[in-house]
Design brief:
The chain has a domain at 50-164. Helix content is 92%, strand content 0%. The chain contains 2 helices and no strands. The longest helix is centred in the middle third of the chain and has 133 residues, at 8-140. The radius of gyration is 61 Å and the shape is rod-shaped.
Length: 165
């Protein structure tokens, strides 16, 4: 039963051994332990600061990315508006060119029609003058002497008829 009820001497030497061990640890081991704990605490604090800085940088990077995206969207919208404006301008220019070309074609067709009308009128006039000479020759019973004089006479008569109408 001595283990459960220690003697005074055993308790004394246990206290002495504990005191010596405590003094040795306090003198040599305790500063090293405190230094290690302090360096570990500093390392943890630095890690926390680094993590906070990294978080701030990440937030800034996100904000910059958002601003870049917004700028890119704005530029895209500007480009689309410019492209739409250019498309409208090109279409309007093509429409004007087509109208100008159509007007030229219409003018050329009008001039050609006028020329054809003049030619047709001239042919009609010549045919009428020939018929008139034939009829006049049959009525008068003789043929007029010069073809040039005949044409001038018929032209004069046709001009008079046209002026009355």
């Amino acid at each position: 039963m001595e283990l459960f009820t220690p003697d005074f001497g055993l308790v004394f030497w246990m206290f002495v051994a504990f005191g010596v061990l405590f003094l040795v640890l306090w003198r040599f081991a305790w500063p090293i332990i405190l230094k290690t704990v302090d360096s570990r605490a500093d390392l943890i604090d630095k890690g926390v600061e680094y993590a906070q800085e990294a978080k701030e940088q990440l937030d800034n990077a996100r904000q910059q990315a958002d601003s870049f995206l917004n700028e890119a969207r704005r530029q895209q919208a500007d480009m689309l508006r410019e492209a739409d404006r250019m498309k409208t301008q090109i279409i309007e220019q093509a429409r004007k060119e087509a109208q100008t070309a159509a007007a030229k074609e219409m003018e050329n067709a009008r001039i050609q029609i006028q020329q054809q009308q003049k030619e047709a009128q001239q042919q009609f006039r010549n045919q009428v003058s020939n018929f008139a000479f034939d009829i006049a020759g049959k009525i008068i019973g003789q043929q007029m002497s010069a073809d040039k004089a005949q044409e001038q006479f018929v032209d004069k008569m046709l001009d008079q008829l046209e002026n009355k109408n």
